[in-house]
Specification:
The protein is an alpha+beta fold. Among the domains are: 93-191; 451-614, no CATH class. The protein is built from 3 helices and 36 strands. The longest helix has 49 residues, at 92-140.
Length: 622
């Protein structure tokens, strides 16, 4: 759409506004409920209503509003006859104000530069005067050697002072020139900036007589939300666990929320509300079972989020769909996120770019976000709760990423926690301000000291390190959500873990990291390993030795895991010959040893088993 045509639409719209007796109404957000993805915004305004039919235009609303979520209620002696959603370029005034402010600053800088150059001219004149006086005195005056020396010292001091002033003024002139260059660049950038259409809500009313009425607007808006994270600390195995519960708040709605009544909700209104259905499981040769969800487990994924020009996007949100785990990209566009078990997709989002959801295919995922060119460039009126099918959508330049993200704001809040039907809510007890500036805000919403039982786990077949586990009871009352946790043990940062509350029972168990002072070994005992042939069968014997040593200064409890193979063929028989007091789960083949180790104590266990299967068949046995 050409600018001339766009301007014509705006002029026609403004004329229609005047003719229809429309009144512009500015409101401020009073209450905001932040969801994991999105926010519910409530605004209230008392308005003087004339008698008869009129229209109120509530202006300056987010362009990312969900039109289907709009609700308008009115208290007063009137009737609301229609509610419509429309777009307008209400932020053009702010751009003009910025340009005017920059122009005034540029004029001020140019005036300062002229003053400095005038000062420089005066110094040059003083130079000439000193040279002339010095020459005249030397020619017309017969003076003693002492007098000449004093005069020369005077003129030397004066010249040095003038030279110092000259250098300072030249530096100031250079500084002002750089400032002018920067201001000119900012003015040029604003001149070419594409304006973002802001939302408006048009409310048609009919009042039998002039009155006052109070209107309440409520709507759901995108590009806002929060996700939880934790700091988990333990000073030693004898101290309680400290859990700092943090809310990572972000909003880029183009609305500034000043001193609002703020609540955080764990529900996600964007998730589907339809119950899943099973597809018919047709069984035949060449057919596979229906797939509902890929089961890819992982630990962490990192990478970089870039724009079309391969420049890093700062502050892009990276979240795991169906969970409350999330993070944002840093100043280099980089991110790192821990993946809970059973999750296999990542969502990447940033203002002005198309959101992408990708399957996790490895530990490194670099993503290029495409600019969203579907921003409306026309002033259009649409029906209540729906976007017009005839909305014109010419391409516009999307919003570029911020030049930098400032240091995170972190604070502790007075919070009341409640549990509703659809999740937890955290009501902030003080008015809260969240500007739409893409700056992350980390707010502390809970700080707990909880008694914990410490135990170690080790599965040396996979990883020979021992992992310290903290077990906490009565954790449900804390209203914890799934999220990343920064783990500190004995005043040292251990790394990141997952507060996986979705797979817990009455005891919350989470990892505090590796402890190299619990030394675990698993070695093969070759003298017991053999293969024998008896009749039509062969028997293969396998033996392992497991050893654990506690080098910590206090006793510890360790759960040691290993396994036997489990046969699902009647011609293959697995027999456990030695498990050294371990507990065998025959269905899964998992062997568990519960061990108490004193300081400096070392113990060993044997795992021996044999496998019998037909001669001439090949069977892979560890």
């Amino acid at each position: 759409m050409k600018p001339m045509k766009s301007a014509l639409w705006i002029c026609l719209y403004l004329c229609a506004t005047t003719l229809m007796g429309q009144t512009k109404v500015k409101t401020t957000a009073e209450k905001v409920t932040l969801f994991i993805n999105g926010a519910q915004v409530t605004r209230t305004k008392q308005v003087d209503i004339p008698a008869g039919t009129s229209t109120l235009i509530f202006t300056g609303l987010s362009p990312y509003m969900d039109a289907q979520s709009i609700q308008v209620s009115a208290k007063g002696k009137l009737t609301v006859t229609a509610v419509n959603q429309q777009y307008n370029y209400t932020d053009s005034a702010s751009v003009s104000q910025q340009q005017q402010s920059l122009q005034e600053e540029l004029k001020k800088t140019e005036k300062q530069e002229k003053q400095q150059k005038a000062e420089l001219g005066l110094i040059n004149a003083e130079y000439d005067m000193l040279k002339t006086n010095c020459s005249v005195n030397n020619k017309n005056t017969t003076a003693s050697l002492v007098t000449i020396k004093e005069v020369n010292q005077y003129y030397s001091a004066q010249l040095k002072a003038l030279k110092s002033k000259e250098l300072a003024i030249n530096e100031k002139i250079e500084e002002l020139a750089r400032k002018q260059e920067q201001l000119n660049a900012e003015i040029a950038q604003l001149s070419g900036k594409s304006l973002t259409p802001m939302n408006e809500i048009a409310v048609n009313i009919n009042a039998p007589a002039a009155c006052k009425a109070t209107f309440t607007l409520s709507y759901y808006v995108k590009n806002a939300g929060w996700f939880p994270s934790y700091d988990v600390r333990s000073g030693s195995l004898s101290e309680p666990i400290s859990i700092v519960y943090k809310a990572n708040i972000f909003q880029n709605t183009k609305e500034d929320w000043k001193n609002v009544e703020l609540s955080l909700s764990s529900s996600n209104p964007t998730t589907g509300n339809m119950a899943p259905k099973l597809a018919t499981y047709w069984l035949d040769y060449g057919l596979s079972a229906p797939q509902y969800e890929l089961n890819q487990n992982g630990n962490s994924v990192s990478g970089t989020v870039l724009d079309n020009n391969r420049e890093p996007i700062i502050g892009a949100s990276v979240t795991i769909p169906g969970s409350t785990v999330g993070t944002v990209t840093d100043i280099d566009g980089k991110y790192s996120i821990t993946i809970p078990n059973g999750k296999n997709r990542l969502r990447f989002a940033f203002i002005g770019f198309q959101t992408q959801t990708k399957d996790i295919r490895g530990n490194i995922m670099n993503v290029v976000l495409q600019e969203d060119t579907q921003m409306l460039d026309e002033v259009v009126v649409v029906g209540y709760g729906k976007a017009s099918a005839s909305s014109l959508k010419p391409s516009t330049k999307s919003i570029k990423k911020a030049a930098a993200i400032e240091e995170e704001v972190s604070m502790a809040l007075d919070v009341e926690q409640t549990q509703g039907q659809m999740g937890y809510e955290f009501e902030i007890k003080v008015p809260y301000t969240i500007p739409s500036d893409n700056k992350p805000v980390v707010a502390e919403i809970g700080h707990y000291q909880i008694p914990a039982a410490y135990t170690y786990q080790s599965t040396p077949k996979i990883d020979k390190d021992a992992f310290l586990m903290a077990q906490v009871t009565d954790w449900e009352k804390l209203h914890l959500l799934e999220g990343e946790a920064n783990v500190y043990f004995e005043n040292t940062f251990i790394g990141k873990s997952i507060m996986n509350v979705s797979q817990q029972s009455d005891t919350l168990s989470f990892s505090l990291g590796r402890d190299k002072r619990i030394m675990v070994q698993r070695t093969k005992e070759n003298e017991y390993t053999s293969r024998k042939f008896i009749g039509s069968n062969q028997t293969q014997s396998i033996a392992w030795k497991l050893s654990v040593r506690n080098t910590r200064p206090e006793p510890v409890t360790l759960t040691l895991y290993d396994q036997l193979p489990v046969s699902r063929n009647s011609n293959i028989t697995v027999t456990a010959e030695e498990i050294s007091g371990g507990t065998l789960d025959e269905a899964k083949g998992i062997i568990t040893w519960q061990i108490n180790l004193q300081p400096g104590e070392q113990r060993e266990w044997s795992l021996r088993y044999k496998v019998k299967y037909p001669k001439g068949r090949i069977l892979t046995i560890e």
